[in-house]
Amino acid sequence: MGARLAHKVMSTRNLRIDNATYWSDSKTVLQWLTMDPRNFHQFVMHRVAEIPETTLVVQWRWVPSKLNVADGATKITDQTQQKTWITGPGFLKAESSHWPTTTKQESFIDTSEIRKHVMTTRSRSAVTFNAHYFSNWRRLYRAVALILLFVDRLRARHASSHDDGPCEQGEDVTFIAFAEELKALSVGAAVHRGNRLVGLNAYLDNDGVLRTRSRLNSIDIAEDAIVLAPGCRITNLIVRSFHEKYHHLAYETAINDIKASFYISRLRVLYKSVRVDYFGPLLVNVGRRKEKRWVAMFTCLTLRAVHFEIAHSLDTSSCIMCLSNFMALRGLPKEIFSDNGTNFKTTEKAVREELKNIEHDKITIKFDGIKWRFNPPGAPHMGGA
């Protein structure tokens, strides 16, 4: 209140004030003004943070409680303070060198209002991460590498005083899918008859990775293939990376390249299901955060002209909006050729079933007269350009 009142007076027009001094008989408050207000509880934090906005810390001085005339309004005393209440204490008329000061540096700090940080820890049997958060294999690989590097640095820092033991394996779909097989192989037992790994000569290497011995093991030219579960997100990202490596062509070459490092059951079925509908994702700035966007590419099969549209996501709504934006600039196409992407299929179905009129965001889009043709499944070369 004192800082607010002084600021109001000093802001008055035609009133010149060169300096101001603020007095308090609370040494605790004077200590608080020299500390970071974020360390206090909410009530004290807001008030301590407001004072430096209009005053300087050096302008605050200490006054003994006996000379503090402000106490006359709240404390009962035997002495009359009518004069000092109006004119202030007598030392104010003297030079600043004669003003009261603390006799010694206060070493005691009142910590009753300082916010206490309580840290709790709990042990976990394994480190988990969400593989579905990553859109491609390279980003997932780099993220896991950074985590392992961070863990190694922490252990190196505490190696002299702590023994953390061996690193726990991360829990993903592969370990869940082969939980029974991993448990048997870890104790040296054989996989029972009828198991899906019984004919693969599966084993656990020194790092606990499930591998399978093949005929290449006899000539020692390559490492044994790593066994991956076909329904795992990580498996899907790895297959997609090979698919993109060969630019969605060279089907058999990509399959053989995958088999050189990984064993995936029903690999050909999985590989056919991996397609790139749009190119992307691209990271764009939205305010202070980054979001993923895709780009839909329209190619004229007559003139080879190319048109790009930004897609907010891979859903049907974004596909319809990209198509409507394209037609708004280029006109209504007679035929559309595309692969068998899910978003393309559902868009074509919506166009056909809604009588060629779709209301999207209160805008009626007319698709009457368009013939939508899909390429044969598993034939990306049918896309022409």
Features of this protein?
single chain, 385 residues, alpha/beta, Endonuclease III, domain 1, Nucleotidyltransferase, domain 5, 33% helix, 16% strand
Strands side by side in the biggest sheet: 3-4-5-6
Shape designation: elongated
Please identify the top-level CATH class of the largest domain: Alpha Beta
Order of helices and strands: HEHHEHHHHEEEHHEHEEEHEHEEE
CATH fold name of the largest domain, please? Nucleotidyltransferase, domain 5
Q: How would you characterize this protein structure?
A:
By secondary structure, the protein is an alpha/beta fold. The protein has helices at residues 2-10, 27-32, 42-54, 82-87, 137-157, 173-177, 179-186, 233-245, 251-261, 267-273, 316-330, 342-353; strands spanning 22-24, 60-62, 202-204, 210-212, 225-228, 262-264, 279-286, 289-299, 306-311, 335-338, 357-360, 363-366, 371-374. The chain has three domains: 2-98, no CATH class; 173-273, Endonuclease III, domain 1 (Orthogonal Bundle), CATH 1.10.340; 279-383, 2-Layer Sandwich (Nucleotidyltransferase, domain 5). 10% of the residues are buried. Mean pLDDT is 78; it is low at 166-171.
What would you say about this model in short?
This protein has 385 residues and is of the alpha/beta class.
Describe the secondary-structure layout.
Layout (H helix, E strand, L loop, with lengths): L1 H9 L11 E3 L2 H6 L9 H13 L5 E3 L19 H6 L49 H21 L15 H5 L1 H8 L15 E3 L5 E3 L12 E4 L4 H13 L5 H11 E3 L2 H7 L5 E8 L2 E11 L6 E6 L4 H15 L4 E4 L3 H12 L3 E4 L2 E4 L4 E4 L11
Parallel strand pairs: 1-2, 5-6, 10-13
Antiparallel strand pairs: 3-4, 4-5, 7-8, 8-9, 11-12
Helix pairs in contact: 8-9, 11-12
